[in-house]
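Weekly structure sync, notes
Attendees: PL (lead), two postdocs, one rotation student
Agenda item 3: pending single-chain targets
PL asked that the sequence for the first pending target be pasted directly into the notes so everyone works from the same version. It is reproduced below exactly as submitted, 219 residues in total.
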Amino acid sequence: MLLGAIATLLISLVLFLVYAFQAYNPGTLTINAPFNLGNYQFEKAKLTEKELDISWKLYVQLTTRKAAIPIDEENDIITEVYDSWYELFKSTREYLIELPASEIQGNENAQEIVRLSLDVLNKGMRPHLTKWQGKYRKWYEIEVQKEENQHLTPQELQRKYKYYGEMVDEIKIVNKELNEYANQLKRFSHEETPNVPTKVITRMKDFMTKFKNEDKVSK
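Predicted structure, written out during the meeting:
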């Protein structure tokens, strides 16, 4: 009876291992970055809760600020739009700081999230801000103090800016790119997650790799 129980247990274990390895499918999540920044790939089975949380927070920031939302030329105030973009810079930095250096080292997913987030800010948004924000704010601060403009609403006043049309057209381009960025980030939480066997095997492989590396260091 004991031998029969052991045999049954072994058969069950073998069947489970066969099922687990057949079901193993880590998959990748490819993000098409905005601003022609290329593609960023993530190993779905290795995405941590912290990484998913950061992606979700960035998505919420984008879609609730005047960043991924198209500018309303009739009602939006340009200085407030730029203030909102500044807050996006600030929030992104804060979220990335939540990733400790120990989690980034050797973690390709974390490194890709950091690279994607910083590239969107520095290569996507910053060129527009460098070109327009300082010049426009200086002009606006001077004009808003003039007696002749006291009867104008902020929306009416900003339309007097010599390059208003060109500036707004470029804001629209940034809005569109950031909206696409938000849609891509949304996929982190809405795409189907890897199955349990895939997660278990991935964690086991990571543990064995880490154990081997630590063993080499100790020797």
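Discussion points:
- Residues 22-211 form one domain.
- Residues 18-25 have pLDDT under 50 and may be disordered.
Action: rotation student to compare against the earlier draft before next sync.
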